What does this fold into?
Amino acid sequence: MFKYFEPNKIFSITSKAPKYVLFLFVIILSIGLMESLIFSPEDYKQSHSVRIMYVHVPAAWISLGIFSVITFLSVVGYVFKIRNFFLISKSLAPSGLVFNIVALVTGSIWGKPTWGTWWAWDARITSMLILVLFYIMYLVAWRIYENNDKAFKITSIITILGIVNVPIIKYSVDWWNTLHQPASINIFAKSTIHISMLFPLLTMTAAFALFSLLIFLMKYNTELIKIKNKGLDRL
Amino acid sequence: MIYETLLMNGYGLYVWSAFAFTILSFISLYVVVKAQYTKEKNKFIVKFGTLNPEKSAFAKSQSINREILSNTSNI
It folds into this structure.
């Protein structure tokens, strides 16, 4: 089954896909921005500051999702010796890091009018900050060890250690008294968010997911060309 | 209407700066990744040009090399 993931087989798709993804991303983002900045209602308690949620929450979700995917691919790649899984993980990491930083910065901006402070050592904020550090360690490990077996081992260890932090981020609002409110959206139970706010939130999430796909494709193609460059050197 | 959208009951500065930071981060990441992509692609084309006919023919036998030379989209 894994032979379908070979770079030679999928490059023809990944090299053509970015322009279509970019087009779709611009359309969905435009709809999302209109919805979140103009058409969605203000909150009865937080007034217009609630609009920050439409960039803060999707960014946090996607950074957590990307780290989970990176960990899964790194572990499976290491166990079954599938180098392409490491290439995919490496290509996903930059957008994961940027989304994590966006979540922290927009959260800080949201914190000032809501809590009266830019920063608090709250359980969720601190655990998100720790996730940024894991992203940085992961990318630095690739920079130091490049594409060799040691890089596969070290990046896998970093992701395994980092993934422990993901459930802590998710459940920190339930386990500890934090400034964050409990989750308003639940897949297995009734969500407490109104549809007029849920729609822009999901639209922005779709736009952010498309952006991470776009960056992944461009980065993945770059990594493949880099490998091919080395191949030409050996000819 | 326009002023209301911009000021947002006094929260405008916070809301617009959060959105601006997000969009700027996206543009920066896109530009950086695009620059890396273009650099590697150009390096590949230059290296390919310096190969002798025999090596060039061998390299072209690999479909992925042909793809890089021919279509890599202009995103």
